[in-house]
Design brief:
The complex is a heterodimer of chains A (294) and B (621). By secondary structure, chain A is mostly helical. Chain A has eleven helices and two strands, in the order ααααββααααααα. Chain A is globular. The chains are: A mainly alpha (294), B alpha/beta (621).
């Protein structure tokens, strides 16, 4: 029963990783760029949600709208202030450093202008676990159900919109070939900007979702961001649904290691799996292999 | 000292040769200043961290991979020294069961060795992945090491850390301010060796791999060997930095070695400027010093760093050191004029083809070579023989398989079927780099120059296999290594003169015009001392005067006994300089023979112009 309980918690945690991993995935698919500040955008979402919902007493729907707005604007700012200028540099990986720097600024900014403490956030659905399977059964937090449902809904909706709508097709065209997409009249800059905004908004919602089952703090996004990044690489950066597989692999390996080995080592198997996987399949489980042309 | 005048290498001016004496100055600091906080706390930290940033520079600056896991190597060095030297008396209630109490230097050497092994292990994923994929591997790697030092309490005492006894030599304490005397010699020796490696053929190989892995392979540079070596070297230096760090405060605890440390030092590196010792030093100094300069920033120091990094990324692409370098170059001159003069004088006696080795057999024999990509057959059952010393043209309409043929010949693609023999040796299963070492050189249709390097350095990369010095000779910059470097420079200059680019010798490849870049590709390929030279559309995009110049160069290459395979669209050029021409269409050979015969061949005319009465009529003229 305890194992089942941990499996459930691992799935909930894994879906948060998957959701943020999906955020990485969205910008990569349009611009081949990962926004490494996404973990701290998640933190920004969590903190904004906390301040609005707990400190200011704004209704949850209002807090959610605020979080989405903060994420969406944040994504635009990251793209305009950090990513776009670094693409003008000849150094190939300037964007990695630029987005990492943005993440550091966000985290330290939250510490300076908000707080360095950890806070408990109430779930809008209540903090009493539902008992499943009678007295010896497992406890399921309503928030965990919310995490799983919302994450799945977001990933599936965006993936569906990508293949069904004109904007989605524009996104796919830009991801295939920027030049040709431009020639077809697609404003690739706006598509890329939109993808950063959407991706950051999703991460911010992730922060609001995860806050009630962890704690809200300025550092809540650092490790989570790294793990979500691992999840997106494991799934394959080109594959939207692959992020769910990646997230679940990391989430479940964590809870199972904590159960059967030790809590201290819970991150190790997931990372080892990542390293070995990339040795065997350099573009992840569902990624595409490209033939280089000379 | 004595080698300078003999072979024409210019001696640096006296002032330049005396500057190393300035290196002794920092040793005065602990003698003159008593303040523990500034000397031991600040200066000591700067020295140790500079080593760490210099190690990161090898991977980030030279190889061009982003590592966010160097804290792991730093931790391996620090914990090896701490655990092996710590006395039980200072770790009374710790979880550590056994205290070996080794001497400091022995433990330090082992720390460096263990860290180097860890770097070797990380080198392999680095061969398969790059960019964001490799970055996540380095993060995972660093975090796994971090977890182990946190959790293996029986070895590391977990989060409570390990306390060391300050170093003593005889009766003298080497702790406190005196620790500078221990760290500084290591720093100077390692940075000097890294600088020597950086400006040698090793450093050029690293940068060649960074700029164009495929072109590096085509000059005989093994990507695996140099990339793994860079990771091993980098990890060893990071391990050394860690070992020295453990004695800085005589205490180590896991929290120092977190993911944040890796990120912060990456920022310090970029801030100061990559591939520059001065840059490493500046980046670290600002990093360590800033909180002291602006105490109000103590809490928001990371925010300041982050913003500073963004500013540097956008306005100073080569970091603070880059700005200083260009200022210094403007004030003091670069000394390039002297070097150019000496090179020109020495190169005037050099015959660029003197070292060509005599080879036996046909230059190239293909038997039934086939290349398929999925369902597409790009080259189909191709057989041809190119006699030694001839110029063979390879033509065909777009998509006929010419470029694929070149890529199969150089091992960029592995052929699906067939045999490739060159000068009597089966080369069909060799790697690209092995084929280049065997004597197969090429140019690239879509230019693959090493953009960050000068024209001269590009040719020097081509000469890579001619270097015989080992890593130790290079690191110590022995007279033999210096002589060899100068000799190669002279030869590279002579090759530039051969193609008419000597006045652009010190110009970055990225600044060359299109025609100059094509010539530089030829010079670099010739530097490999090839038996067979593959020219992949050398005339593409050139003016007729430039094409004339290339024709003349190809004729001289042929006269030197080098076989040439010329892939070209420009018919006039192919017909003018080829002894024989092979025509491909849809991956098959449709004609072969003298230029005149091929031009009249109806199959060739059909392939180019289609089946039409007027087209056939054109062939009858």
């Amino acid at each position: 029963m305890q194992t089942l309980q941990l499996l459930w918690a691992g799935i909930a945690q894994g879906m948060i990783y998957a959701l943020v991993a999906f955020g990485y995935n969205i910008t990569f698919s349009t611009s081949k760029i990962l926004n490494f500040s996404l973990g701290n955008v998640l933190m920004l979402g969590g903190v904004t949600g906390f301040v609005l919902y707990m400190t200011r007493g704004v209704p949850f729907a209002g807090a959610l709208a605020g979080v989405i707005a903060v994420g969406a604007v944040g994504g635009v700012l990251v793209q305009k202030l950090a990513v776009e200028p670094s693409l003008r540099k000849k150094s190939q990986h300037a964007w990695i450093l630029a987005t990492l720097a943005v993440g550091i600024v966000l985290r330290n900014g939250a510490e300076v202008f908000w707080s360095t403490d950890d806070f408990k956030m109430r779930s809008p659905l209540g903090d009493a676990p539902l008992r499943v399977g009678g007295a010896g059964g497992i406890g399921i937090y309503p928030q965990e159900i919310l995490i799983i449902l919302v994450s799945l809904a977001i990933v599936m909706t965006v993936e569906m919109l990508k293949s069904r709508t004109l904007l989605g097709k524009a996104v796919m065209a830009v991801s295939e070939d920027k030049e040709t997409a431009s020639l077809m009249g697609i404003d690739q800059k706006r598509v890329i900007l939109f993808s950063f905004s959407l991706s950051a908004a999703i991460a911010a919602v992730g922060g609001l979702l995860v806050a009630p089952i962890t704690l809200v703090s300025a550092t809540m996004g650092t490790v989570l961001g790294v793990k979500a990044y691992s999840a997106s690489i494991i799934g394959g950066l080109e594959s939207g649904y692959g992020t769910i597989a990646g997230g679940l692999i990391i989430g479940l390996s964590e809870s199972l290691t904590a159960r059967f080995v030790s809590t201290g080592y819970k991150d190790v198997p997931g990372f080892l799996f990542l390293i070995v996987l990339l040795l065997v399949k350099p573009s992840g489980l569902f990624g595409k292999r490209t033939i280089r042309k000379v | 000292m004595s080698d300078g005048p003999q072979n024409g290498e210019p001696r640096p001016p006296l002032a330049r040769r005396l500057t190393p004496l300035l290196l002794l100055l920092p040793l005065l600091v602990p003698l003159l200043v008593e303040n523990q906080y500034y000397v031991h706390g600040i200066l000591g930290r700067i020295l140790v961290y500079t080593l760490l940033v210099a190690s990161l520079d090898l991977v980030v600056g030279y190889i061009g991979d982003v590592s966010i896991g160097h804290a792991g190597f730093f931790a391996i060095g620090a914990y090896t020294v701490a655990v092996l030297t710590a006395p039980p008396a200072l770790n009374g209630d710790s979880a550590i069961a056994f205290f070996p109490q080794w001497p400091f230097l022995v433990a330090l050497a082992l720390g460096v060795a263990l860290s180097a092994i860890a770097g070797f292990v990380l080198g392999f994923p680095a061969l398969r992945s790059s960019g964001p994929y490799l970055a996540v591997i380095t993060i995972a790697y660093g975090l796994i090491i971090f977890t182990f030092i946190n959790e293996q309490e029986a070895w590391t005492n977990g989060t409570k850390g390990v306390t060391l006894a300050p170093l003593r030599l005889g009766g003298v304490s080497l702790g406190g301010n005196n620790y500078i005397f221990v760290v500084y010699p290591f720093l100077v020796a390692v940075l000097w060796a890294l600088r020597n490696i950086g400006k040698s053929f090793w450093g050029r190989a690293f940068e060649a791999i960074k700029n164009s892995a495929v072109a590096a392979a085509c000059t005989g540079i093994s990507r695996a060997y140099y990339k793994v070596s860079a990771f091993v070297l980098s990890a060893a230096v990071a391990g050394l930095a860690g070992g020295l760090f453990s004695q800085l405060d005589s205490y180590v605890a896991p929290n120092t070695f977190s993911y944040n440390l890796s990120v912060e030092f990456l920022i310090a590196l970029i801030f100061g400027g990559t591939r520059s010792i001065l840059g490493n030093l500046i980046g670290v100094t600002i990093f360590v010093f800033l909180p002291d300069l602006f105490t109000a920033f103590a809490d928001s120091r990371l925010m300041v760093y982050g913003i500073l990094l963004l500013v540097v990324l956008f306005f100073l692409p080569d970091g603070v050191a880059g700005v200083l370098r260009s200022l210094w170059g403007r004030l003091a001159g670069t000394g390039l004029a002297r070097e150019r003069h000496a090179l020109a004088a020495a190169a005037s006696h050099v015959d660029v083809f003197a070292s060509a080795t005599a080879r036996q057999g046909d230059a190239l024999v293909l038997e039934g070579v086939t290349m398929r990509f999925g369902g597409l057959t790009a080259v189909n059952d191709l057989s041809l023989t190119i006699p030694r010393g001839s110029v063979r043209g390879l033509i065909g309409p777009n998509g006929s398989g010419k470029s694929t043929t070149v890529n199969v010949l150089t091992g960029v693609y592995q052929q699906t079927a067939g045999r490739i023999t060159s000068f009597g040796h089966d080369v069909g299963s060799l790697t690209t780099a092995q084929r280049a070492r065997f004597g197969l050189a090429r140019t690239f249709q879509n230019l693959q120059l090493f953009q960050d390097l000068t024209a001269l350095q590009n040719v020097l990369v081509g000469l890579h296999q001619s270097f015989r010095s080992n890593l130790y000779q290079v690191a110590l910059w022995t007279p033999a290594a210096r002589r060899e470097e100068w000799g190669a420079k002279v030869r590279a200059y002579a090759l530039l003169r051969f193609v008419g680019l000597e006045s652009q010798a010190f110009e970055k490849a990225s600044n060359l015009s299109y025609g100059q870049a094509r010539l530089l590709e030829i010079a670099r390929a010739l530097a490999v001392s090839p038996g067979l030279l593959l020219l992949d559309e050398p005339a593409a995009g050139l003016t007729s005067a430039e094409i004339e110049a290339i024709n003349a160069i190809v004729r001289r290459i042929k006269a030197a006994g080098i076989t040439v395979l010329l892939i070209e669209h420009h018919m006039e050029m192919v017909m003018a300089i080829s002894d024989e021409v092979t025509v491909l269409d849809f991956g098959r050979k449709i004609a072969e023979g003298s230029p005149g015969a091929v031009q009249a061949d109806p199959a060739v005319i059909e392939a180019y112009l289609g089946k039409h009465p007027t087209a056939i009529g054109a062939g009858a003229q």
